[in-house]
Amino acid sequence: MSKIINIAGRDVGFDAPASLPVRYRNMTTRDFFVDMQTLSESTDSVKKPKKLFGKAAEKEEAAEEMRINEKWDTTILFNIVHAMAKAADPTITSDLIDWVDSFEEFPIFQIFAEIQPLLVKSMQTTKKSTAAVMG
Asked: What is the C-alpha separation between 28 and 91, in angstroms, rounded?
């Protein structure tokens, strides 16, 4: 599974192969799944205040937004994005800082939002539950 995103006028490929957790470990010496869990635990879902009042407010759905908490580590986002780009193009430098600095701008949150579906899809399992098979 791969995706191409235009970053500062350059098309950059991103890939989430089965080997991504191993690649991530080799590049960062960190555990991919621990870091993904850290990201998950470092955001809180909060309800946004309603903008309308009276009867209109009763019909308005309460919107939620994500907020980061004290566990947040932006470096994890950069590491994941870099590992996925390197999986798509092995010629990319292994040095994260050099790679990020090679762009005029690097909107990490936008980039991560675009590649997140790749990560989710790559981590989904197709294996049936043992209980369902045995039951």
From this structure: 17
CB 106 within 8 A of CB 82: no
| pLDDT tens for each residue of 31-41 | 999 999 998 88
**Which residues, listed in sequence order, are joined to residue 50 by a DSSP beta bridge?**
none
The first and second tokens of residue 128, run together, are 């049936």
Strands 10-15 and 43-47: unpaired
**Cα torsion for 30, 112, 20, 82, to the nearest 10°?**
-70
Residue 115: pLDDT over 70: yes
Higher pLDDT, 133 or 24: 24
65 CA to centre of own chain: 16
Site of tokens 């193009």: 89
Residues facing residue 15 across a β-bridge: 2
Structure pTM?
A: 0.76
| Residue 2 and residue 106 in contact, taking contact as beta carbons nearer than 8 Å | no
